[in-house]
Design goal:
Strand order of the largest sheet: 2-1-3-4-5
Largest sheet: 5 strands, antiparallel
Radius of gyration: 11 Å
Number of strands: 5
Number of helices: 2
Oligomer: single chain
Helix content: 10-25%
Low-confidence stretches: none
Strand content: 25-35%
Order of helices and strands: EEHHEEE
Distance between the termini: 17 Å
Mean pLDDT: 94
Structural class: alpha+beta
């Protein structure tokens, strides 16, 4: 069963748990966020329907305002 839907730069991926989400985020270099739009980057909790924005800094992508 999938808990999260992660969309990065318009490409969706289903994730089983939060660790799976973090593994996907680690694969994306933060420099890509500078070149592409972050409007197409978000996480949806498919149990609650809550939508979270994805942010970035010079080290990595991260989920804004998320509490596991």
């Amino acid at each position: 069963m999938f808990r999260y839907k992660l969309v990065l730069f318009g490409f969706p991926d289903l994730c089983r748990d939060y660790e799976d989400v973090l593994a996907h985020l680690r694969q994306v270099p933060p420099q890509r966020a500078v070149v592409e739009t972050m409007e197409q980057c978000y996480l949806i909790d498919m149990q609650s329907g809550e939508k979270y924005e994805i942010g970035y800094d010079n080290k990595a992508l991260f989920i804004k305002d998320f509490e596991e």
